[in-house]
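I would love for you to help me understand the pair of lines that follows before we discuss the fold together.
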Amino acid sequence: MSDFLKALSVFIGTVIGVGIFGLPYVAYKTGFSIVLFYFLLMAGIAVLIHFLFAEICLATKGEHRFPGYVGRYFGSFWKRVTLLTGSIGICGSLLAYLIVGGEFLQFFFSPFFGGDSLLYTLIFFSLGAYFVFRGIKSISQIEFVLSLVLFAILALFSFRAVPFINTDYFSDTNWEFAALPYGVILFSLWGMSIIPEIKEMLKGKQRELKKVIATGTLLSVFIYLLFIIIVLGVSGPNTSKTGMGGFIDVVGNGTLVFGFLFGVITCFVPLGLFLIGFKEFIDIIGFVGALTIGIDGMIIIFLYRKFLRQKRSQTMNPLIYLAGLVFILGIGLEVFYFLWVK
């Protein structure tokens, strides 16, 4: 397998995660056209920010991760800020995986063995902890296989669901919830954390790295939109926050097998937060996407400006600040949604 395919598989495997299951619900609440607009806007911004960070990674000596690059150019204070936002983001992401993983296990096994959602969440946590304890070798090859399985499952999933799709479900637009998709979609498109590893996999080849980012983002958007069309088109007003509830009622449990596999491929961990009551899936991924990723995105813009001045004696294109403005507005939208709309 070529280095490019390995890197592309790892990038897609990082980008496509638990966020996919929140997308049909936000499309139902706001309307498909609004979600499509967000995807066009945020995919462009995600590619831009990933490109900026990739350029920094390629031109800076040594092997670092995001906080390391921030510390290299901005010092220890901002390094600690990124460590904090990264920790919050990871906890939020893993909590979202825990919620969805437990729900999927319950959907799949409770008809045969009974049991409530807490039981299956604990089982899912235990499985995740087991795999973390054992460790996983040759991650790029595993990601490549999982990516192929992902596409195969999605194809089967689509084939089984197409006869049930109702196009009337795509015509409504609800501006009251127009702020809702921002954080969820940004969360679903973010793959910045894996870029340093991909740089190492590609041996520092700039053209190949940017090609991986662009191709991986486009493929991810295609998969997301197809998933939205299938689930929203089938479920309509019964679309659940994790995507599968209303879908199952229409197509039956047989297709759930594919949906279950589709979810388990991407899922795992923070049990404590779940047990003390943090269980709102859309709220969690919206918060992580808007706040922590938004802050990291703005830091990358200013990091890139400092990098250009220090390494190349250049000034940054002022248009890049528009991406930062989107992040600021996105945080405001998320606050607005929680305080006045939710």
Q: What stands out?
A: Residues 22 and 282 are 6 Å apart (CA to CA). DSSP finds 15 helices and no strands in the chain. Confidence is low (pLDDT under 50) at residues 135-140.
